[in-house]
Write a structure and sequence with these properties.
about 425 residues, alpha/beta, Rossmann fold, Nonspecific Lipid-transfer Protein, Chain A, 2 domains, nine-stranded mixed beta sheet, 16 helices, about 25% strand, elongated
Length: about 425
């Protein structure tokens, strides 16, 4: 079995149109297809595929509950529109991510040759859940672009590169419209998908024009879709970079090694980094308890450290049985919680990250935007804290990178 994810950075660019076109083309070639609509809040793949029915449940041989997609000939399809057709849906991100992974991993996709996932716009929990669930079968994402929003498409490509997610290719939709008199119009500006694909070294699959026929049929049948099918059927599943790294890092990051690295880093920062000057520069008041929740790449808590910035120093607050409740009350009432995956945190300190053997620039802002670091606290506090630490990390990267690398290199090399 092989799989692909059809995704985009923005809604309304024709992602479901591309998904339905690929699904129909595979079916027309005699393949059996599993179609998964992961747009939980605004599902419409079933409507595009003209499929009706109700999602069911059964139990497998191990007694686990299994989702049964609606079957129509050689097509098996899941969509929330077949689960709750008349109900409003507004799930939280974590709910959506968990549901997406369950649909992929615990759905009855037996017997299908290909799985095509219609992902929601953006690069959130649903996309990552799909990538995790399809590990071992995914040949790459099909990224859908539109001429007026290529800058958003560029972000999606960068996210794939940053996380080592393979890209099957890029399709540019709505590139032109030809009227009944034969005049061609570029309604959304000049196409730039081919140049963007070349810039990042990914396949440019082709263009899809606007047409009344495509609008009515809910699918395209042109050279671009034929190119996509050729790539999909001839490509082999790829390794997912960030998932491969998780298993490798799990062997490397022990609690003992982490504790020693953090202790060494803590002492070094207080000795070498002008915390007081940076406090003034970023107008960070300090005196507020900070809890660092250090996580493994698979989100297990490896360590919980408490400290505060005070009098130009990082003051470590040791957690003991006697002060445990006091620390809990303090951090919940007026403190700040920082959640950070250990390796990306350390990579952000030295400003470099290895992805598929290649080193790329990486800082705390990129880690935050990529979901590797986040904060909780009162409005304003967490932004101010993150801003201050961004400044500390930036200072280290620009002035003390080699020294920092000697301390943390054992974990990130």
């Amino acid at each position: 079995m092989k799989s692909t994810i059809v995704c985009s950075g923005k809604g309304g660019v024709g992602k479901t149109l591309v998904s339905s076109s690929i699904i129909r083309a595979l079916l027309n070639q005699g393949y059996s297809v599993g179609a998964i609509d992961l747009d939980i809040d605004n599902p419409n793949l079933a409507q595009f595929m003209k499929v009706e029915g109700t999602i069911g449940f059964t139990y497998n041989e191990d007694g686990k509950r299994v989702l049964v997609p609606v079957q129509d000939g050689k097509l098996k399809l899941f969509s929330m529109s077949l689960v709750a057709p008349d109900s409003p849906i507004g799930m939280l991100g974590q709910q959506s991510g968990s549901l997406c992974q369950d649909v992929i991993e615990f759905g009855d996709w037996s017997g299908v040759d290909y799985i095509v996932v219609d992902a929601p716009a953006g690069t959130g929990d649903e996309l990552r859940a799909a990538v995790r669930g399809l590990k071992g079968t995914m040949v790459g994402s099909v990224i859908v672009a539109q001429p007026a929003h290529l800058y958003i498409t560029e972000r999606v490509i960068k996210l794939h590169k940053l996380n080592g997610i393979p890209v099957l290719g890029l399709i540019e939709n709505m590139t032109s419209f030809k009227c009944e008199h034969g005049t061609e119009y570029r309604l959304f500006g000049e196409p730039g998908g081919k140049a963007l694909a070349e810039k990042y070294g990914v396949n440019f699959i082709g263009e899809i024009p606007l047409s009344v026929e495509i609008s009515q049929n809910k699918y395209a049948d042109n050279e671009t879709i034929a190119n996509a099918i050729k790539l999909l059927t001839e490509s082999e599943p790829k390794k997912i970079g960030f998932l491969e790294e998780i298993s490798e890092r799990a062997k490397k990051v022990t609690v003992e090694l982490l504790a020693k690295t953090l202790a060494d880093l803590f002492i070094w920062i207080n000795r070498e980094i002008p915390i007081g000057e940076l406090q003034q520069k970023f107008r960070y008041p300090g005196g507020r308890l900070i809890r660092f929740n250090l996580l493994s790449d698979d989100m297990r808590i490896l360590s919980q450290e408490h400290f505060m910035v005070q009098d130009g120093q990082l003051v470590f607050v040791r957690k003991t049985r006697e002060n445990m409740q006091e620390l809990e009350n303090e951090v919940n009432s007026r403190g700040v919680k920082i959640y950070a995956k250990v390796i990306p945190l350390l990579e952000s300190i030295v400003g470099r990250k290895k992805v598929d053997g290649e080193e790329i620039d990486f800082d705390i802002r990129t880690a935050w935007l990529n979901g590797d670091i986040w904060t909780e606290g009162k409005p304003g506090d967490m932004v101010q804290t993150l801003d201050f630490f961004s400044g500390v990390w930036e200072y280290i990267k620009n002035n003390k990178r080699a020294e920092a690398l000697k301390i943390v290199g054992g974990l990130i090399s």
